[in-house]
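quick one before i forget lol
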Amino acid sequence: MCESCRAGILRPSRRALLGMTMAFTGTAALWSRAAGAVDLADSELAPPNAIAPAEALQRLTDGNARYVANQTEIRDFALHRAARAAGQYPIAGIVSCADSRLAPELAFDQAPGDLFVVRVAGNFVNDDGLASLEYGVAVLGIPLLMVLGHSGCGAVDATIKVIQDDITLPGHLPALVDMLKPGVQKALDAEPADPLDAAIAENVRYNVERLRSATPVVAGMVEAGKVQVVGAVYDIATGKVTQV
């Protein structure tokens, strides 16, 4: 860092300071930031997402209620575009399925920049997705993480067929199925009346626990009360999101 910045001639915010440090010194600053959680005490102005996890969750809940009622507030997507170019302050990180019928920003009636979304068929947490979410909570200050499944998930259904019928899928699909097997198998072991619905919900719960215990970044921030991890399922027919 330059001496003029150290002297306070141009005192940047902690967020800007972190960005410069990462640019020059690599990933060491990221882990230092994560270990100390999101500390905004020395910022002149707290960012818009410096809110409690419960408040972030309530915003998503309220937004989904508006979406279900077809009374959404986010309609002008050009609004605040210039401000978004200066930085991002998402209130939640979402692990979503890649299914084209599920769009988290629409389902929660949130504007561009409000959600930090990681998408993969079957909405599971792998190393790449976890790294993205670690960046989200440690650097962007995200207070809430949500694993979001959906009704009729094809990836979960395929995993059920692999387990029950011992079939082999082509290409790289077996690797995807392997990531879904733990939650799906747990659901099937309970012999539910509706195996698909049960497996979808259990897959969400499994990945919620995986995130909560993901050391050193996410687990540490959860323990400190800076981040909350929840799970939910989106109903494609109604648009309603229900926590599980």
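fyi The CA atoms of residues 92 and 144 lie 5 Å apart.
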